[in-house]
Amino acid sequence: MANLKKLTLLHSNDMHGDFLAENVDQNLIGGVSMLSGYINKVRQEEKNVIYAIAGDMFRGSIIDSEYQGISTIEIMNLLGPDIVTLGNHEVDYGVAHLLFLEKCAEFPIINANMHIKTNNVRLFEPCHIINIDGMKVLFIGILTEQVLAQCKTDGIIGTFVNIEDAAEEVGKICNTYNAIDIDFTVLLTHIGFEEDKKLAELLKPEWGVDVIIGGHSHTFLTEPCEVNGIPIVQAGTGTDQIGRFDILIDTDNNCIDSYTWKPVPINSENCPRDPAIEEVIGTYKSRTDVKYGRIVTKFVRQLTHPDRIRETELGDLFSDVLKDALGVDIFLLGSGSIRNEQLGPVVTKGDLSECFPYDDAVHMIYVTGAQLKHMLKRMLRDGVFAGEHCEFYQLSRGLVVEYDQATHSFLRFDFEGEPVDDNKVYTLGLQHFHYLNMADSFDITLDEVRKNHKDRVISTSCLQVIEEALQEGQHQNASGEGRLILHLI
Length: 489
Description:
alpha/beta
C-alpha cells in the first residue's frame, strides 16, 4: 500500500496592494485581515499547510505606492507566506529597489529566469524546497517575459523571453533536484493562464512537475484546467478569494494520488479577522489619508473602464487630457495604465492615484499615417481578442478607427474628419513604458520613426498632468464610444 500524506496548498496571485476589505451588500469582502484570518484558521485545522503567492504583490494601492513597496513587504511579513515568486509589477520601483525589498522580506522570493546578461548570474534563488512532515516540496519560480520590457532601462538585466526557454530551465532544475527525492513539485508562475497551458504541454513527465499555480492574467477559475496531466490554477486578482488545494501525495512514487481544488471567498462569513494586520494597515492608512483625502474634482457621474481591450469612458477622458495638455495630434494611452473599473463621481487624490498609478514620463514621437496604421493593426491582432496578454491602447479625440477582424482591415481610419494620409507626419504621445516597448507593442522601432523627426520628452509626469487638468474643472464627462469601432468574429 502506498504511503500517502496530505498537503493543503493555499495560494494567491496579483494581490496588487488590495489590503482593505470592501463593504458589499452589508458584507465585508476581501482584505488582508480576513485573508490572514482564513490562512491562520486553516493552519490550525490542517497538519501540513503551505501558503504561496504567484507574483504581483505590488502596485494598485496608495499604501503600496506611497512607500514604494516597503509597506507591502511589512504587511506580507505579517501575512506570512511560505513562498513567493516575482511578478512583473515587482520591478515597477526598479531592480535595485526590488533587491532591497527582498532583504526586508521574511519569506523566500524565487525566480529562475532573471539574470545579469554579462555573466548569466541569477538575481534570485531559482527554487526553494520546503520540508514538511518528512516531505520535500520543490517550488520553482517562472516570470513573464514582460519583465524584460520593464527592465529595459536596466540594460544589464535579462530574462528568458519565450516559453520554450522557460520549459528548458524548469527541466534543468527538476533534473538537478529530483536526485534528492523530491516528493512534490510546484511551478509558481507569473506568465498568464494561456502561457501556463503552453508551458505545461512542453514539460516532460520525467521532470515530475505536479501542479502549476499561476498569475498575471487575473484568471478566476471554478475548477483546475488539466494540461499534460498537470492541474493549472489561478485565483483571480486581489484578496477577494484564495485558491485551496487539498492533496494526497504518494510519497513512495513522488506524485499526486488524488486532490481537490476550489476558490474560497474571503468574506466575513467564513474568515476571522487578524487584529495585528489591521493595526499596521491602519497606521499606514491614517498617514496616506491626510495626503490623499483631498478632493480633485467631481465628474457628471461615475466613469468606467470595464474592459482593457475596448474603448472606455476613462480611457477617452485621460487620453484627451494628455493630448490637449501636451499639444500632440494623437495620444495613445496604455489601457492597462487604468487600474480601476470605475472612478468618481467624487474623485479624491487617492482615488486618482489608485486608478492611475503609473507616473511615467511622456515622449512625443513623429509617425507617418502609414506607420500609425501599422501600429494599430499590430494592436488589433487576433491574439488580443483570443485572451493573450497584449498591450492595448485608448485613442484620443479626433482619431476614429473602424476595424473588421474577419478581413483584418480598416473600414475607416480618420483623423479630424479626414482619412489619414499615409505620407503625412503626425505627432504622437506615448508613456515612457510604451515608448520603450514600441517593437513589442507596435511592431515598429524607434529608429524607424526617428527618420521622420527626432523624438523628445514633453512631460516628466503623466499623473501630474491629469490631476492638474481635472482639478481645473468640475463635471467632466466621457462617452466611451465612437473612436474605436470593432467588428469582431
